[in-house]
Amino acid sequence: MSNTQTLVAASPPLTQTALLLHAPRTRYALTDAHPVPALRRRDEVLVRVTHVGLNPIDWKSADFGFGLPALPAVNGRDLAGVVVALHPDAPDAPLPSASASASASASASRSTEDGARTFRVGDRVFGPSTQYRDARTSAFQSYAVTQAHCLARVPAGLAPAAACAVGVGAVTAMLALGSSLGVPLGEGGFSTRGVAVGAEGEEPAWGRREQPGSVFDKIGSVFSNIFSTPRPSKPKAGEWLLIWGASAVTGFFAAQFALLAGMRVIAVVDAQRHGERLRSIGIQHIIDRAVPADAIAEVRALTRGKLRYAIDCVGQATAQHAIDALDTAPATQTHIVGLTGLPREAPANVELCVVPIKTFHTNPRVGAGLTRILEDLLARGKLVLPPVEVLDGGLGAINDALDRLRRGEVGGGRLVVRLEAESGAGAETTADIPVVRLEADTAAQTAENSSA
C-alpha cells in the first residue's frame, strides 16, 4: 500500500460534516454545515479525515464537562487521513526517492533540525490532537488542521486504521519515558529533555516537584500543563522499569520503547489474559495483579528492592502499589509517572511525575522528533500495534462506540471508526486489518484512561 495518493489538488469545500457537543452530559450531534477549518500558519496542513481513533477522554470530557473551552465543541484526539491542502507559504517537501529505504523516506528526509516537517498533497498521515483548545485540530470532523510536526506519514504497507490506533497512546508513552523519566527514545536515543526550550507545558528547570491538584484531578495528567521530572541522572541500560497495567495501550507502547532503550520491564497485569501478548513484545517478567500485596512482594524480590522507576496506567490505588514496590532507601531517588492519578503524599525519596503532553505541539522539535521515531519504527516493523476493531458508519457511529467505552466493553485495544471508504492506489482493503471484536476487561479499560 502506497503512503501517498496520486491526485490533483483541489480546493476543499466551505462546509463539512462534524460531530458537535452542544452541552455537557449530552450526546454528540451530527451536522453537515460546520465550517471547514482554515490554515492560519505556514506550518499547518489540512487533512481529510478518513479514520478516527476513540479514547476515553472523548466520553469523559463530554460527561464531566472538562476540556471543553467553547460550546458547541468538536472533540476527538486521534485521526488518520490524507493531506488535501498546504499553507501558501509552506516549505516545499522533497519528492520521495524510489531507491530510498523505507526508513529514510519515512523519517530524516522530511524534517529538519529545527523541527520543521514538510508534506505534500496526497500524503497519507496520522497523528494525535493534543491541542484541545483549538477545535480546528480535533478529529470528529471531515477535515482537520494539524501542525506539520504533529503528523507522521503512514508507512507503505500499514493500513490507515492501524496507524490511527498509534497516536495518543504512543506519544503519551514516549513523553512519560523521555520527558518525565529521562529515558532516551528510539534507536537513535532521542532526548525530549535535550531539546527543551521552555515552551508551554515544559519545565525548563526539569526539577520542580509536582503537587497533584485541581488541574491534574480535573482533566488528567495527559492534558495537564504541569509536569515534574527528576534531577538525578537518566536511567541506565539494564535499569528496571515497573509498568502497572501494561496491558493498556499506553502501557503496551511504553514497554516497547523502554525495551528499545535497554531497560528491563516488569509488567503487572491479568497474567492469564494478557501474558502471552506481552511476552510476544519481549517482556520477560509478568506478574499477576490479582493480589496486590503478592505482586509488590514479587517485584521487590525480583529487583532486590532496588527499583527506581515505575509507570502506573490504572489509578491512584495502583499507583500506591507501584510506590510500595520502589526502593525505600532514603538516599535513593525514585520516580513514578501516574497516567490516571497519583497519591497526594509519597515518601520523601519518591518523585511524583506526570506527562507534559502539550510539549508535543508547543515544541516543534519534540513533536518532530517523536513522529520521526514512530515513522521509522513502523516502517521497519519494530513496533507492535495493539488490537484494533474497525467500525463503519462514519461520524454517526461514534456515539454508540463511545457507549461501549463507557460500559467498559473494550480492553487492551483500540476502537477505530472509518469515515469513508477509499478507492484507487493504496486504498485500504479488508485484508489490511484483521477482523477483531474487542471484549470487556474492566482493569484494562480503566487503564485506558491513560490515553485520555
TrEMBL record:
Keywords (A to Z) from UniProt: Membrane, Transmembrane, Transmembrane helix
The species this protein was found in: Athelia psychrophila
Recorded superkingdom: Eukaryota
Protein name per the record: GroES-like protein
Biased composition (Low complexity): 95-110
CDD domains attached to this UniProt entry: enoyl_reductase_like
Region of interest: Disordered: 94-115
Transmembrane annotation, as ranges: 240-269
GO molecular function: oxidoreductase activity, acting on NAD(P)H
Entry annotated with the keyword Phosphoprotein: no
Family annotation (PANTHER family): HYPOTHETICAL OXIDOREDUCTASE (EUROFUNG) (PTHR45348), ZINC-TYPE ALCOHOL DEHYDROGENASE-LIKE PROTEIN C2E1P3.01 (PTHR45348:SF2)
A Pfam family matched in the record: ADH_zinc_N
Domain Enoyl reductase (ER): 25-417
Organism phylogeny: Eukaryota, Fungi, Dikarya, Basidiomycota, Agaricomycotina
